[in-house]
Design brief:
The chain is of the alpha/beta class. It folds into 2 domains: 53 residues; 187 residues, 3-Layer(aba) Sandwich (Rossmann fold), CATH 3.40.50. It is 36% helix and 24% strand. The chain is built from 11 helices and 12 strands. A 7-stranded mixed beta sheet has the order 8-7-6-9-10-12-11. A 5-stranded mixed beta sheet has the order 2-1-3-4-5, sandwiched between helices. It starts with a strand and ends with a strand. The structure holds S-adenosylmethionine.
Amino acid sequence: MVVVTTIRKVNDDLIMRAQKIAAFLNTKYVPRRKEGISKIKERYNADVALVVKSNQLILDLPEGEMFFHPNMAQVRIKRLRYGGNDNMLDAMQVKKGMKILDCTLGFAADAIVSSYGVGENGKIVGLEVNPLISLVVKEGLKTYLPTNYDLKAAMNNIEVINQDYLSFLKAQPDNSFDIVYFDPMFRHALLDSKNLSPLRQLADNRPVSPEAIEQAKRVAKYRVVFKENSRSLEFARLGFEKICGGKYAPIHYGVIDV
Ligand SMILES: C[S@@+](CC[C@H](N)C(=O)[O-])C[C@H]1O[C@@H](n2cnc3c(N)ncnc32)[C@H](O)[C@@H]1O
């Protein structure tokens, strides 16, 4: 169960926003009244509290807090700006102006980097099936103010949709995106991906089905790209024969050119 509340220092706007969000999520708004979040969660027997701040939404989960921050994307974009490469963009063979469907948006680091890659004439649509992750990221992309113009422009060019990728893919015409991208929760998590651990509690953990890959191949004009642990058997199971990423890289990208 989820409850929605605010930070302690409130004003009418913040309360109204929290009430709207609670109504949108079809859940309870709880006035904060200087109470601690754990007390509120206990009282309502909730495992998640969504805390509304003026410029941020914070998810208070049993394993810690989660909020949108473009830090990983920031590091990768900086590297690209200094002439470096990005293994994901290389695997996708991203070109300016492309339209990319990111089927597994999560906290949007990959989507922001893809968006930087396609530039202002391109477009990213990001699908996230979990309504809380989707909401926090959608708001975060809108309200987070980075000092870097490139990063802000990349964040602005992502459309977030709270939908399951299979149902979305099935509704798209053939060749309607240049690239379709999947980064599902890894079957075997990498030990050093601890920063994903609160995400694990909310994220949809189902494996990608062969049907979803078939749909992606129909919807993609150029290629389907799939990210996994480099030793994963998922590449073979789903028919990815071309594998990109360094020999010793912990993460690989499977590519199907269509
Ligand atoms: C590993 S995370 C993606 C991380 C993301 N690439 C990033 O850079 O932050 C996988 C995300 O895909 C979402 N997901 C899993 N199955 C999905 C589905 N069928 N439709 C839409 N989203 C899905 C999960 O809820 C999770 O948030």
